[in-house]
Specification:
Blueprint: E1 3-5, H1 6-12, H2 18-26, E2 30-32, E3 35-36, E4 43-45, E5 51-53, E6 56-57, E7 65-70, E8 99-100, E9 108-115, H3 118-125, E10 133-140, H4 145-153, E11 156-157, E12 160-161, E13 166-173, E14 178-185, H5 192-199, E15 203-212, E16 215-216, E17 225-227, H6 230-237
Parallel strand pairs: 9-15
Antiparallel strand pairs: 1-4, 2-3, 2-5, 5-6, 7-9, 7-17, 8-9, 10-14, 10-15, 11-12, 13-14, 15-16
Helix pairs in contact: 1-2
The structure holds uracil.
Length: 240
Amino acid sequence: MEEIRLQKYMAECGVASRRKCEEYIQNGNVKVNGVVETALGTKINVEKDIVEVFDKVIGKENKVYILLNKPVGYVTTVNDEKGRSTVMELLKDVKEKVVPVGRLDMYTSGLLLLSNDGEFIYKVTHPKHETTKTYIAKTRGIPTEKDIEKLKTGVVIDGYTTSPAKVEILLKDKKNDISRIWIQIHEGRNRQVRKMCEAVGLSVIALKREGVGNLTCEGLEKGSYRHLTEEEVKEILENN
Ligand code: URA
């Protein structure tokens, strides 16, 4: 049976950081099987022992991985202080405390992952793992070959040069001065695609995230979601 230090177990259950959990233990806020435990070295049996923090039983949640087809008009936060609709409102039967994996702007639609697995979140969001994010941007303005080359090699946004990207023009509507551009990046800076387009003089009218790694929204209505399969999760976790 799995034995684990009390503060490690508490942190893994999402109570707080390990250091903060140590404080809770030393302050007498933690009970094991109904008895206050103040010693930091205590090991508990994950399957048998009941741990309470501030008189609430804690436990590990199932790991959950959700793929949502986000419509425009929802903010990517758990709570919004301005009272706007959040992506969490679209998850009807998810009891676990999932959080968005990265973020999409309020007016960006498409693929948004949500999870309660820290390792998974890290793999998808940290640029070092190079998980690709694919977007289609509808822009006012038509890029030149030179603009596309700049987007591919890197443009400066907020004083930072973007990493190499894959970019293709899908449509040039010269009459209406509109283009559709396919852009694949593996970073996720704030409003990155909009700012990249702006850096070459294009303003984004609509933006959709088509994919993350090999995942797409195929078969999902706007506003609906599905759980990832075990293989899909494994593929992300084993990437790099
Ligand atoms: N880039 C943006 O500009 N916005 C998004 O929501 C995602 C990527």
